[in-house]
Write a structure and sequence with these properties.
Layout (H helix, E strand, L loop, with lengths): L2 H8 L13 H11 L11 E5 L3 H24 L4 H15 L6 E8 L5 H9 L7 H23 L2 E5 L9 H5 L4 E10 L13 H4 L4
Antiparallel strand pairs: 1-2, 2-4, 3-4
Helix pairs in contact: 2-6, 3-4
The chain binds flavin mononucleotide.
Length: 210
């Protein structure tokens, strides 16, 4: 097994962290790894906003609690099933742990990014711009992979989270950030758990030739 194979193989999402914070220098190295990712027309649209302030984390946490109440209420009023409510609570649990992470980022993309298809769409007055979100999501995913693998090499565990966004209507407003669309959160720290085994699909399920 090569060094890279081992990093890819052993990386897991980590949701429980030791209390101590990793050195800032390591986090910077992980961000630098993220910044090497490919991006559409080398636009490098991904932005990392580190949430250091206790007050900011509290604001986000409260917004999430309010969002959960609002959604549960809406489900009650519309006769949503118990199963859906349980699901919602499950997603909440898979969001809340991020507030215990020593390092927490809101990860977003610059609103300045204009894709070629969008330019074309504007020029032709057509709906060409629809590929923009796909491009931006891919850019975020690729950047995060670099960050995660570098963290794995350093002995740090991370988890990408999109579930919190279910509970927050305008995370940018809560965080008072402009010019960026928040696409996910990213929690990092020294691992304090060993996730149990999860099954991976067989190559025959994901690969075919046509
Ligand atoms: C786009 C994306 C969103 C995710 N959102 C969450 C989340 O909100 N909460 C969470 O606990 N895990 C989240 N995860 C982590 C996945 O649950 C995890 O990657 C998956 O179960 C496979 O486990 P592994 O990362 O340990 O291999 C997310 C992963 C991705 C790629």
């Amino acid at each position: 097994m090569t060094h890279l194979d081992k990093l890819i193989d052993e990386r897991r999402s980590i949701r429980k962290y030791r209390d101590e914070s990793p050195p800032d220098g390591w986090i910077k190295i992980m961000i630098l790894a993220a910044m090497k990712a490919p991006s559409p027309s080398n636009s490098q649209p991904v932005r990392f906003i580190r949430l250091r302030s206790f007050e900011t984390r509290c604001l986000l946490h409260q917004a999430m609690r309010d969002g959960r109440e609002r959604l549960l209420q809406a489900l009650m009023e519309t006769g949503g099933s118990k199963r859906l409510r349980n699901w919602l609570n499950g997603y909440y649990r898979f969001s809340e742990f991020m507030f215990q992470a020593p390092v927490l980022f809101a990860v977003g993309t610059s609103l300045k990014f204009i894709s070629f298809s969008e330019r074309l769409g504007r020029a032709c007055k057509s709906e060409q711009g629809h590929t923009k979100h796909r491009d931006l999501d891919m850019a975020v995913g690729l950047a995060l992979k670099g960050y995660l693998l570098k963290g794995e090499e350093l002995g740090l565990g991370s988890c990408i989270l999109t579930a919190p966004l279910i509970f927050m209507e305008e995370p940018e407003k809560i965080l008072s950030v402009s010019g960026i669309a928040i696409r996910c959160f990213l929690a990092t720290g020294y691992p304090d758990e060993e996730p149990s085994y999860i099954n991976r699909k067989d190559i025959a399920d994901v690969y075919r030739e046509i």
